[in-house]
Amino acid sequence: MTWYKDWFNSEHYLRVYSHRDQSEAERLVELISKNLNFNANPSLLDMACGAGRHAVAFAKLGFKVTAIDISPRLISEAKLSAEQASAEIDFVLSDILEYESNKRFDLVINLFTSIGYFEKDEENYAVIEKAYNHLKPDGYFVIDYFNKDFLMKNLVPTTVFSENGLKITQNRSIEGIRIIKEIIIENNGHNEQFYESVRLFSYEEILFFIKKAGFTIFKQYGDYFGNDYVIETSPRLIIFVVK
Q1: 183 and 215 share one domain
Q2: Predicted TM-score (pTM) of this structure
């Protein structure tokens, strides 16, 4: 399954997620940074950096950032954002599972549900294992994933909105253990279709993978404002772990 290669490299991807802006990213970065203690200029690996929202925010705080993503288009956008912010970031075009480095980092992040894309659970687990292997001893890993229980109870089947003259329709459904989103971009009668397919991991499944990798959990939140995680009502599952 390679839906993410086409969709993340589409010119429309950032339009669909335009509401996920820099201020939201900075809110999450602030939540992460205030909960962790580092010496000066800590190193950070952003696994699946997208357009660089979080990478730029961390770089502005003094982190030495390495940011990887599979999409050439998103990497280009991220480089532009970093340049505009005068942020020095080492960007790497790579699949998460194929990334290898001799560097070991103080902090690894996997944010905005950047796990669960693969069909096999072994591959999804490998993302967490990859984070563990690229951390220094006592290094931190932060994963930000949607809350399955909240999502299933609050799923909106269809939304339609306009962006820069485009009509964007998103149809959502749950098929087995995955959430499927069909995205239809209409432009002057011409339609383009894209898909998202993400594994619906429960809270217990995510914790199992984290503990299996060797991590110790020490904090968790249910949203970017730092509210406690409540399985019935929290939109997000943000877990802080240490190696």
Answers
A1: no
A2: 0.93
